[in-house]
Amino acid sequence: MRKILATLAIAGAMLAAPAARAEETLQVGGVGGANAVVWLHYIAEAKGFYAAQGFKIDLTYSQSNAAVLQALTAGSTTLAIAAGFADPMYAVAAGAGVAIVRIDGQAGPYALEANKKYKSIKDLKGHTISVDEAKGTTMVYFVAMLAGNGMTRADVDFIYAGATAARFAALESGAADAAMITAPQLFRAEADGFVNLGYATDYAKDVPFTAVLVNRAWATANTATAKRFVAAYAKSIPWFNDEKNKAEAVDILSKVTKMDVGDIAKSYDFLRKIDYFERSDVVSMAKVTNFYNAVHALDPSLNLDVSKLVMRLD
Questions:
Q1: pTM of structure
Q2: Which of 17, 208, 266, 296 is the most buried (most CB within 10 A)?
C-alpha cells in the first residue's frame, strides 16, 4: 500500500509540474562581433534567461548594418539585436518587411578617437574620418559633433567601415585620422595613445542608437515567440544595471571578447553613466522621430512615416 501511495504521489507531482518547454533555435543577426553593445545577449545566455524561455540563440554577425538588414529581409534570420536605426528606416521606406519591436541602446555610446596630434574636432578639417556609412548611424552622431564645432561634412573626408573593430583598425593603421569608436575598443584606443575628442552624448541628446528588429512576416505569424524573446533579452537590462553584478558582467563579456578586463570594467561604468540600455519595453516614438529627423537632415530624399517602422507585439 505504501508503494502504491508513493507511486501515486510521484505521478501526481509529475502531472502538477509545468511541462518543460521544447528547445527552439532562433536565428538572430548582429553587427561586427562581440562587444559592449551586445552585452545583453551574452548576459541572457550566461544567466539562463533564454533557456528559461526554451530558446537556443544562433547569433550570426555581419560586417555592416546593411548586411544584417538584408538577411532579416530575406528571412535567413528572424530577429536582429543591437541594430542601428538608419538602415531599417531606408529598408522600410523601400518596402522591406522589417520592424522595430524594442529600443535596446537609447544613446550613442561613441567617442571620436583621433591621432594624438589633433587637439580638437576643429583640427580635423581636411582630414579623414572613419564612420559606418554615408547615411549611417555613426554618421548621424558625427555630424552632430561637427555642427557643435561649427563644421559640416564638407570639411572632412571619409572612409567607411561598418563595425567598430574595422574603424579602430583604420585608425591604428593610419588610414583614418580619427574614428567613431564604441566601448571597449575606445578605451584600448586611449591606452594606445589616441586622444578622445568628445562623446556623441555630448552633442546628440535623446537620439537612440540601436533596436531589436524582426522580420515582420515572421513576427506576425510568431508573435508570442517574438514577445518571449524580447522579454528574455530585456531581462538582462535590470540585471546589468544592478551594481552588485558588475564583476560578473565584466567576466561574462571578457570571456567572449577576450579583451582586456580593465577596458571592459571601464565600459561597464561608461554605459551605466550614459544610461545606455533602454529601460522601457515601449518603443518611444519621440526618440525614433528624433533619429529620423537627423537622418532626413542628411538625406532629404528619405520619406518615411515613422509609425510604420514600429511593430507592437500584442
A1: 0.86
A2: 208
